[in-house]
Amino acid sequence: MKIVFITGAGSGIGLATTKWLVEKGYFVIASVRSFKRSKELLALKKETVDVVEMDVTDDIQVKDVAKYVETCYGKVDILINNAGYSQGGFLEYLSMDDWHRQFETNLFGTVRVTKTFLPLIRKSERGRIINVSSISGFFGFPGLAPYTSSKFALEGLSESLRFELKKEEIFVSVVQPASFRTGIWKKGIETVPQMKNPLPYQKQLLQEGTKSMERGQHPSEVAKVIWKICESPRPHFRYRVGKGAKPLAFFKTYLPWWLLERIVHKKTEG
């Protein structure tokens, strides 16, 4: 039985992925920041899931959990870095603490967990690292600069790591979900600082973000893609999933920038 370690498993994509992989015969070590917010996860059968508390921003917790996993299971076949959140807001209204917190979780949390768990992944016959990024790691959406920046950085990290580990037959892949009903966008909008006299286009951007969240697909669609990566003998580097992800990537790649700007501005006219 393959052993999976996943972060941010308490809700959204993390919870959906845990449930899907368990159904497909994997044993999942699911990490969450707090047991109190993970009732649905804790209700899963103990024979197939081991739920552990771990904050990806805490060096000591990450090292302690890695020691626990090594003692109890000896290895990790697949590491899924999923923990993250979306900090919404416009640059002029955000504090430097907002930026630091965003990167500490979305980027440095992934670095911390991967660095600590890599010796356990090397003990697997076919190690895998799957980083859950976002289409925001390819397209810089206005009003989400901290989140977008952190995901762009995650993409760069993943590319470098893919080249570094490929000769060891440890494949690194990134998943770029579009908008899904995970709560991450809702939290992102809720974290927008109070703005004095916001401009019409800023109000419109927040409204568009809410609409996008409401139209989002179920996170189980992302879970299925992650499962396919787990099953693949030679997984690709990048997987885009969800309505609009591939068209958006196509438009940014092939449309002239002036036309892309016009389309974005059209969407945000107040």
Automatic annotation (TrEMBL):
One Pfam annotation reads adh_short
- Example GO molecular function term? oxidoreductase activity
Keywords recorded for this protein, A-Z: Oxidoreductase
Q: SMART domains from the xrefs?
A: PKS_KR
Question: Where does the Ketoreductase domain lie?
Answer: 2-183
User: Keyword Oxidoreductase: yes or no?
Assistant: yes
Question: This protein is called what?
Answer: SDR family NAD(P)-dependent oxidoreductase
- Name its species: Fervidibacillus albus
